Amino acid sequence: MIVAGFGFRAAATAASLADALARAAQGRLVDRFAAAADRAAALAAALGVAVEEVDAAALAAQETATRSAAALAARGTGSLAEAAALAAAGPGARLLGPRALSADRLAACALACCEPSLAPESEVER
Length: 126
Fold this sequence. Notes:
globular; Cobalt-precorrin 5A hydrolase; 5 helices; hydrolase; alpha/beta; Nucleotidyltransferase, domain 5; hydrolase activity; CobE/GbiG_C_sf; disordered C terminus
């Protein structure tokens, strides 16, 4: 199972979100989508998919591969996209790579998996 986690600014468009997803997925099929609880509805509406809401405590509990000072200050995690993907994928989840940013830098997406057989050799350790 592969989960796509998102972090994005209020100004992000559906195109921003789709671009971040395409850059992160690199052709992989995504099984689930996740975002911070207060942003899940906006993501669902923009992409037309069901989105798992991840609460603030679950986001802050994740060890991310990248660290944004702004995300850390605002959300208590280094990367909202990475934290959402990891939290939604469950215990033992691993990132498939660092977050990918949309060309307009308004959205970020990261993929995580919970099945070791799906993780490539270059996976990012938590």
